[in-house]
Amino acid sequence: MSPIFYLLAALTLAGGLAAVLLKHLVHSALAVTVAFAGLALLFLQLDAQFAGFAQILVYIGAVAILIVFAILLTHGSELPKGGVFSHTWFLGLVIAAGVFAVLGWAVLASVSAVPQSNIVPSVTVHDIGIALVGRYVLPLEIVALLLTAATIGAVIVAMHEKERAR
Amino acid sequence: MITMLGAANLLLANPLFTNLDQIFVLLRNWLVGFFPVAIRPAAGVVLGVVAIVCVFPGLFALTTVFERKGLGRIQNRLGPNRVGPFGFFQPIADGIKSLTKEDVVPFRANAVVHFLAPLVLVVTVFMGFAVLPMGRNMVLVDMDSGLLFFFAMGAATELSVFMAGWSSRNKYSMLGAMRAVAQMISYEVVLLLSAVSVVMIAGSLSLPAIVAAQNQYTGSFPHWYIFTPWGLAGFVVFAIAATAESNRSPFDLPEGESELVAGYHTEYSGFKFALFFLGEYLAMFSLSGLGVTLFFGGWLAPFSFLNFVPSWIWFFGKVMFFIFVFIWMRGTLPRLRQDQLMNFAWKFTLPFTLLNLLVTALWRFMGEGWQRWVVCTIILAAAYVIFGRIEMRRQHFGPRKYRYAE
User: Fold this and answer.
1) Is B34 exposed, middle or buried (0-12, 13-18, 19+ CB in 10 A)?
2) Does this complex have an ipTM over 0.85?
3) Least confident segment among B115-129, B217-231, B252-266, B291-305
4) Both B52 and B152 in a single domain?
5) Domain end position, chosen among B89, B113, B145
6) Per the structure, how many domains does chain B have?
7) Which three-class secondary structure string do you get for B285-321?
8) pLDDT computed for residue A98 by the predictor
9) Per residue in A12-46, pLDDT tens?
10) B50-98 pLDDT tens trace
11) Does one domain contain both B110 and B82?
């Protein structure tokens, strides 16, 4: 664990915390972006270039933009009067802790389940491409289908709204 | 071809040529020699960064004066002609002015975001230069996935535009930012997909490797990707998308001064405004550099007998040629309308780019020979004509109806 890892981890955590704690929705969205960037840098620090750049391209370039657009188009950028924190925060905390526990258990269990080797695997973009259209072609196609369905669904939802208003 | 390659190799062996060609690399190595051995790699990187941070803003200053002169000529007026000989010191005067001008932040603005937006823009745009090969051995970081890095940085600039528009608390800024982000997202898809066809043929995401894949000559003619049917189609789409991505005319709706004052940077003054200006031109340089690298052989000479000219002269010459084309278009074309812009992106360029990907695959698997030239050209030309005809038939002149936005 190098000092760079701790810096990046602190950045990511700070971004995530700010996203939850800030009062203004757009500020939260921008804070989430910081967390995304921190994650991307963590990937890069692990020598996973493709994952890191894909994280920036998809999460900062598309997801964050989508979030801010959604906030602006739904007029959610004004501060609500009754505060922004949910009344069921305790339940949320329990669920979050549960998910964290499961993930942590899975990660810790994988240490003994997967044989450890000191050789750093070198995965090039070429290898990832071969794997995606070779071994993992079915999941890839399923994801593509799902995304297409989601896009068409979004268009239909947007159209429906308009016709009802007329 | 073998004899030409042999001649090129002989030329490369000539010490004068090598020294001139590698002058910046040698200079860097010489400067790095002054540092202790432990920090030499880091010092080399820092020197490269310093060079990029100095050269491109310098080019930016030159370009602004050439642009104003050129636009003046196109519009039958003189352009700047007061500061220095023929007005060539105008950028210095502009720089001093923007540095000393009062920095006004609107009272209701979101101060932190308002401050961060120009910084994020300039930093992300500068990052793109890190992977561009600007000459033989002249690339700051040769990444395995350099192209992906370039596009990732390009995607991050969109957020800064949004930050600027939103934090200003100004309707014009907000509308400008919404327009800019919508436009950039739409054309980014096309930009990425048109670059993918090059990756399919070159078989690498690393930009130096893409240049190396084009480093062949038949007779004295180069094997640049622009000289193939799919490359030409890809480049045309790439050029359109790059113009839209850098918010240049005819795609400069986000800052349409007749309706939006100045778009997302309406509320910026002084040096922050200068940073936005710099960011726009740097984006132009880096996108031109990427276009040159992908389709025009990067730092390669256009004819094999011109190989004695240093590689970096070719790269910067080609980039400046595209900057000239940008300025020329700005002086020539009228601005598009928002619905035309979106229709063009999603209904014409996107299907055409997807088709181009298929044609590229066909080109890849048909093997050498004249057949693939004929087949690919016919498919692309037919698609262009048919797409164009269908779109033109759909045109109807009259009051506009919007389905999603009213």
Assistant:
1) exposed
2) no
3) B252-266
4) no
5) B89
6) 2
7) HHHHHHHHHHHCCCCCCCCHHHCCCCHHHHHHHHHHH
8) 95
9) 999 988 888 887 788 888 899 889 989 998 888 88
10) 888 888 888 888 888 888 888 888 888 888 888 878 878 888 888 888 8
11) no
Whether A53 and B152 lie within 8 Å, measured CB to CB: yes
Residue with tokens 């800019």: B180
User: What domain range is B277 assigned to?
Assistant: 101-394
In a domain, B13, yes or no: no
Kindly state the tokens that stand for B371: 């057949």
| Neighboring chain B residues of A124 at a CB cutoff of 8 Å | 144
Same domain, residue pair B63 and B127: no
Q: To the nearest whole angstrom, how far is the Cα of B371 from the nearest Cα of chain A?
A: 28
Residue whose entry in the numeric block shows the structure tokens 């090969």 = B133
Determine whether the interchain pair B153/A62 forms a contact, defined as Cβ–Cβ distance below 8 Å.
no
Give domain status of residue B388, yes or no: yes
> By CA distance, what is B149's nearest residue in A?
A53
- Measured from the Cβ of residue B67, the count of other Cβ atoms closer than 10 Å reads 18
Tokens standing for residue B125: 């745009």
Q: What is the mean pLDDT of residues B267-285?
A: 86
Q: Which residues contact B300 (CB under 8 A, 6 or more apart)?
A: B211, B214, B215, B222, B224, B311, B314
A-chain CB neighbours of B162 within 8 Å are 65, 68
